[in-house]
Amino acid sequence: MRILVCGGAGYIGAHMCKILAENGFAVTVFDNLSTGFKKNVRWGKLICGDLLDQAAIDTCLNQEPFDAVMHFSALAIVSDSITQPGKYYENNVTGTLNLLSAMARHGVDKFIFSSTAAVYGSPETTTITEETTVNPATPYGASKWMAERILKDFEIAHKIRSVIFRYFNAAGAEPAGQIGEDHDPETHLIPNILQSLNGKDNNKLNIFGNDYPTPDGTCIRDYIHVNDICQAHLSALTYLQNGGQSDCFNIGNGNGFSILEVIAAVERVTGKKVEYEIKARREGDPAILVANSDKLKQRLNWQPEFTELDQIIETAWRYYCR
Ligand code: UFG
Q1: How far is the C-alpha of 38 from the C-alpha of 87, rounded, in Å?
Q2: CA 308 remoteness from chain centre
Q3: Smaller CB count within 10 Å for the chain: N or C?
């Protein structure tokens, strides 16, 4: 099968390309390299282009008869989406719309979409299922929810079947350490903790708020290994190929860890002490986000391989050290 991976130069997309290639798929990456890196595109060819440029997408889809599209391209910094909503809606909604319209024109009918736990906003429940009310609290979450909604209409009109994955906190790196999490600027917790260990410039981790309604006051998240996310995508590909209906799945480990618990895990894994300062809350952060992924386990026969937080951090640390 030939797979078009939009956003394949980014963190999760690059891991996906590696796993696709290892499983015998032919991979083409479409990426504008705005947040991804050329060096990450090692398991397929790169077409540099932007999803806001319809002609560029048409040119890409003209090149090969793709069997399916995986869509990882997005702006994904929640706090930036609050200050620059127009940019987020344009990129995440219009970009997805352009991609789907081009797929309809070219007869590509299988789509796997990277959505987010942010579509749920700040739910009251302790674990979130796909039935939990969708109520995005930020432009980022709303942009992903709008794209999810558009998919329904494209299925009716153009028979594009889709699997939507709502990611909780993607983390870690592929165990060989060739690729990993590398954003510029980096906003995510685990890479920022690891960077704080490098001893340069009195680096300290900033903890954004310790007055949340959680046992230690810091935010609780569900960290899921990037390879486990990609394995779910691989299962979705087979599912759609076998005629499976469009569906939506949470991806998480089902365990929540506070920022202080993540710090303790990093100290265990690295043997180093993490220095930190408590800062004000970051805008748009819900207190607790923990997934129930039973539906994914049952319907797509998925099981996470990296179930322990320490295992996930070990892979991130190996990449960081390289
Ligand atoms: N944090 C810090 N210091 C840092 C970085 C993060 O204290 O240097 C805190 C954040 O405030 C948050 C937690 O660590 O409480 C996790 O933050 P990340 O930036 O690593 O990840 P987010 O929880 O913000 O992002 C995730 C997903 C998004 C999703 C979002 C929903 O990556 O897709 O949750 O809020 F939209």
Answers
A1: 23
A2: 19
A3: C
Residues of the chain with CATH 3.40.50.720: 2-170+223-251
What residue ranges of the chain are covered by domains with CATH 3.90.25.10? 172-221+254-321
Ligand 1 atom nearest residue 167's Cα = 33
Q: 167 C-alpha vs ligand 1 centroid, how far in Å?
A: 12
- Whether this model's pTM surpasses 0.70: yes
Class of domain 172-221+254-321: alpha beta
Q: Which of 270, 273, 277 is nearest to 316 (CA)?
A: 270
**pLDDT tens over the chain, length 322 residues:** 999 999 999 999 999 999 999 999 999 999 999 999 999 999 999 999 999 999 999 999 999 999 999 999 999 999 999 999 999 999 999 999 999 999 999 999 999 999 999 999 999 887 999 999 999 999 999 999 999 999 999 999 999 999 999 999 999 999 999 999 988 889 999 999 999 998 776 789 999 999 999 999 999 999 999 999 999 999 999 999 999 999 999 999 999 999 999 999 999 999 999 999 999 999 999 999 999 999 999 999 999 999 999 999 999 999 999 9
Given this structure, which CATH class describes domain 2-170+223-251? alpha beta
* Residue 140 appears among annotated catalytic residues: yes
Partner residues linked to 220 by β-bridges: 258, 288
> Encoding tokens for residue 45?
């060819």
Ligand 1 within 6 A of 250 CB? Answer: no
Integer Cα distance of 66 and 84 in angstroms = 34
Catalytic hit among 120, 140, 239, 319: 140
